[in-house]
Amino acid sequence: MARVRMSDVAAAAGVSTATVSMVLSGAGSDRISALTQAKVREAAEAIGYAPNSVARSLRTRRTRMIGLISDTIATTPFAGRMLAGANDAAREHGHLVVLVDTDGERAQERRAIEALTGQQVDAMVYARMWHQVVDAPAGLAEGSVFLDCRPAQGGWPAVVPDDREGGVTATRELVAAGHRRIAYLDAPQGSGAVASALRHQGYLQVLAEAGITPDPALHVHGETDAGGGRAAAGRLLDLPADRRPTGLFCFNDRMAMGAYAAAHRRGLRIPEDLSVVGFDDQQLIAADLDPPLTTVALPHYEMGRWAMEVALRERAADPAAPHLMECPVVRRGSVGPPPPQAG
């Protein structure tokens, strides 16, 4: 079947090819009557005309494609929301997202950048699956944006979650409920997780504001999964009664899920005997625990949108400092006042 051409649209609409070109490109909106524009668009739809995107990109030097390079973001629980935010913003501005997952391999990353550059994408977004400080890879297009990571040397627009303020938010939930013995179940020591130290700083800030002296025994580390949370919480819940925490702030929701198991194994009820706050608002965990988990949400969708809007020049950004995206609290049923015997 022969490809429908712009001249076919012109013949069907009874106008010149130049008029069709201006109408379909949007260049003639102030020079061509609304009636004629409608006639051209109706004719194009009726005969099935599709613009030649290759030819258009050669004329405009824009492909209307954005390259999104990630490490293992496509296989993480949060990838869907982050990619949805980026894709929604791109679609709203007439762009297509080309995703390349490199599995964190530098050689693959380099080839991906070269391939996207060869395809003349209009912009690039460089993403990681969690908040990290990274070295900017060579060859990134000018104006590229870092998503859920920030370049060690600065100089590029970047968006990351405000993990320190998120730690503040989580700990304040427990202080506001009346807790004084509050533990922080942290990621493993030496893990290099940027969020670990930032959330701990927020935790310490709130304790200081509340006049609570931090107890080093209430800052414990564990693997960031349910097993790690169960083991770490178990160590805390086996402390003498006068030192045992009444509130737990967990590094993530998976650790909080393990803390629930540790509490139940010891006959403790949540939140009557123990209050728990998580972090991430992870799908299929936080809202499905019994009781549902109060947690701090990571703003993956919002970060994805922000990064894409900056890449498309629809939003201004300061390349000298990363944009810190708010991590809001999601209140559910896992926080209550401390038990009376706790004092």
UniProtKB/TrEMBL annotation:
Q: Does the keyword Glycosyltransferase apply?
A: no
Q: Name one GO molecular function term.
A: transcription cis-regulatory region binding
Look up keyword Repressor and say if it applies. Answer: yes
One Pfam family linked to the record: Peripla_BP_3
Q: Which UniProt keywords apply?
A: DNA-binding, Repressor, Transcription, Transcription regulation
Q: Could you tell me which InterPro entries the record lists for this protein? A: HTH_LacI, LacI/GalR-like_sensor, Lambda_DNA-bd_dom_sf, Peripla_BP_I
Q: Where is the HTH lacI-type domain?
A: 4-60
Q: What is the name listed in the Swiss-Prot or TrEMBL entry for this protein?
A: Transcriptional regulator
